[in-house]
Automatic annotation (TrEMBL):
This is D-inositol 3-phosphate glycosyltransferase. PANTHER family: SULFOQUINOVOSYL TRANSFERASE SQD2. Residues 35-217 form the Glycosyltransferase subfamily 4-like N-terminal domain. Keywords: Glycosyltransferase, Transferase. It comes from Curtobacterium herbarum. InterPro entries: Glyco_trans_4-like_N (IPR028098), Glycosyltransferase_grp1 (IPR050194).
Length: 410
């Protein structure tokens, strides 16, 4: 921690509109080097706030059990102060790490006391968010809570069976409500997710605020790609249902010579590799794994269509990234994904590889004018998800000012 961390942030800057910069403490259960929507949003939020002149600190699990402490970490040329809590890998999950719940307040209380933040922004209610929220509440610090979490996604890595799952979900959401009631405002990425959260936590007010993307980082290619490359970006996890896409691949017209590129890592890669081999399409499926940002951005720019087969997306940042790259999107008709499709692609019946193949064929065989119209529609829709709008909204919440839910981008 820097020596002047306990000084008040009193200077005004042009970046903050002439108002006093804020000292913001973000508490997250997942953060870089993790690759998932919540970690990506937390990083983008922190970088955006820092660029606006605010002092930003992050509390998150360490990436191994011994790497605990406060560190200056660099992300895209910006240095952030990250307070890492000793963490341990969840045995049934490839990458998820957690701090022991009963240690969080003990280890974060000195950090919060030294920083005296203007606001604490928790990114979940699970472990780190829960402990930090309670500590901040007892100190009278404003709390903003954002939910990116679907308990249904985590239950796959727990011993609960189908018969006990409804009870487990009820308990999980009741537990979430206890933490979110401490927050002055609760947010989630989409209106659909907000409705879901209101029902799950007994009707508390919830604001829909897009995670947002910095569209200036993405490039849309001019013209139509020569090939037919179907792209997916994200964790290669069970809830992403990538097996549906691989099963759809041999159903596409052979003349299209369509390829499927997966950008991301995860525990499903061996199973998906075996499935591709079984279906005879292993030479048409590429697993790029975890790649540098420039490779991901280039893959999106050079792609023909983006696919999102997941049925558990509260927003889908990777779909927003694809739209910012000018790609048509074919997505499962589930959760928040329908809000991202309006003339820029198609929805398909979740889990139905035949319907997915039909919708992909519609994109890949569309006349040039229709294909270009889908690309332009993606670029138009992404304007409503501009990261600067998201940052301004959270700045207002941090200062205790009223805000309304952000538009869906239709």
């Amino acid at each position: 921690m820097s020596a002047d961390a306990t000084t008040e942030t009193t200077d005004t800057t042009a970046a903050t509109g002439g108002r006093r910069p804020l000292r913001v403490l973000i508490a997250a259960d997942t953060f870089a080097p993790d690759v998932n929507g919540a970690a990506t949003f937390t990083e983008e939020l922190a970088l955006g706030l820092a660029a606006r002149g605010h002092e930003v600190h992050i509390i998150a699990p360490s990436w191994n059990w011994w790497h605990a402490g406060s560190f200056d970490e660099e992300y895209r040329g910006v240095t952030l102060t990250v307070h890492r809590l000793a963490s341990y890998r969840w045995p049934a999950h490839e990458w998820y790490r957690f701090a022991w719940p009963w240690t969080v307040r003990k280890h974060t209380a000195p950090i919060i006391a030294a920083l005296r933040p203007d606001v604490v922004h928790i990114q979940s209610h699970i472990v780190v968010g829960r402990g930090v929220a309670r500590e901040a509440h007892d100190r009278g610090i404003r709390i903003i809570g954002t939910n990116h979490f679907m308990p249904e996604n985590l239950l796959e890595y727990t011993p609960f069976g189908k018969r006990t799952t409804p009870l487990a979900l009820k308990i999980a959401w009741a537990d979430a409500a206890k933490t979110y009631r401490l927050a002055e405002a609760i947010t989630t990425p989409t209106e659909l997710a907000a409705d879901y959260l209101r029902d799950a936590i007994a009707g508390q007010p919830v604001l829909a605020i897009s995670c947002g993307v910095d569209a200036t980082r993405y490039t849309a290619a001019s013209g139509r790609p020569a090939g037919n490359d179907i792209v997916f970006v994200g964790r290669v996890a069970p809830e992403k249902n990538l097996d549906v896409m691989i099963r759809a691949l041999p159903l596409l017209p052979a003349a299209l010579d369509a390829r499927f590129t997966i950008v991301g890592d995860g525990d499903m890669i061996p199973k998906l590799t075996a499935l591709a081999k079984e279906l005879g399409v292993e030479d048409r499926v590429r697993f790029l794994g975890f790649v540098p940002d420039e490779v991901k951005l280039r893959t999106l720019t050079e792609g023909t269509v983006f696919v999102m087969p997941s049925t558990a997306e509260l927003q889908s940042i990777s779909s927003l990234e694809a739209m910012a790259s000018g790609l048509p999107v074919v997505a499962a008709d589930s959760m928040a994904l329908p809000h991202l499709i309006d003339g820029n692609g198609y929805l398909f019946t979740p889990g139905d590889e035949h319907d997915l193949a039909a919708k992909l064929t519609s994109v890949l065989t569309a006349p040039d004018a229709d294909y270009q119209a889908m690309r332009q529609r993606s670029l138009t829709m992404i304007e409503a998800h501009d990261i600067n709008r998201t940052l301004s909204t959270f700045e207002a919440l941090y200062r205790g000012e009223p805000v309304a839910s952000a538009p869906e981008g239709r």
